[in-house]
Amino acid sequence: MNKNLIRFESVAKEYTLGEIPIKALVDVNFNIDEGEFVVIVGTSGAGKSTILNILGGMDTATSGKVVVEDKDITKFNEKELTNYRGEKVGFVFQFYNLIPNLTALENVEFSVEVSKNHLNPRDILERVGLIDRINNFPSQLSGGEQQRVAIARAIAKNPQLLLCDEPTGALDYNTGKSVLKLLEDINKETQKTIVLITHNLAIAPMADKVIKVKSGTIESITINKTKKSIEEIDW
Ligand SMILES: Nc1ncnc2c1ncn2[C@@H]1O[C@H](COP(=O)(O)OP(=O)(O)OP(=O)(O)O)[C@@H](O)[C@H]1O
């Protein structure tokens, strides 16, 4: 059995918009083991990004515990949170968020500057199939290529945890599938824990664990005993 990496215990998140409180998360509980590929699904506004942002140390829970490697990150001070975000977590966003005036290689090099255990940026860009494009700027790359740079940037830090928020949301069907294949391969090769948000339930069979979120609560948690490769899934 794999070791537990993440525990959400009775996590709630409330935002206030003016006078009006918005309960984004209510009593959210789940576990994620080391090396798991986890898909979080749910409709728009269900609370998926809120979960990911809290897990990534970019937002804080209103109450409850968020335990990562036996440490409750809700108790972290600013410095501990900065270290956590810098060392332990890699982020991949829907719109890539590359720095436009840096080349692909420079984007990856820039992100590893703050991390101690980082991997060689050039090797990682080669791994994601972009060795011929390392001196190109983001504007010279297709959406799929930019997302590969963003994935390279996230994994070059050698984080324990890779968090992906709708990574294929801006890509066409085949390009999106190839990005999911890359994430699947990285999970297999490096045993890195991956948590991926989507509203596309069709990709759920590629996950070890599927967490369904609805109106700020967990609707269900399913473990796929036999998962499918993204190549076997169509939608
Ligand atoms: N900073 C904020 N201030 C106020 N309300 C917020 C804030 N962030 C999120 N919310 C609210 O919290 C709820 C959950 O939002 P969240 O972004 O987590 O949903 P989601 O499932 O990721 O949706 P989507 O698929 O559209 O990105 C929504 O009602 C949203 O409007």
TrEMBL record:
Organism of origin: Chengkuizengella axinellae
Keyword hit for ATP-binding: yes
Record-linked Gene3D superfamilies: P-loop containing nucleotide triphosphate hydrolases
Domain ABC transporter: 6-233
SUPFAM superfamilies found in the cross-reference section: P-loop containing nucleoside triphosphate hydrolases
Domain of life: Bacteria
Protein family according to the UniProt entry: Belongs to the ABC transporter superfamily.
UniProt key word Transport: yes
InterPro entries in the record: AAA+_ATPase, ABC_transporter-like_ATP-bd, ABC_transporter-like_CS, MacB-like_ATP-bd, P-loop_NTPase
UniProt-recorded name of the protein: ABC transporter ATP-binding protein
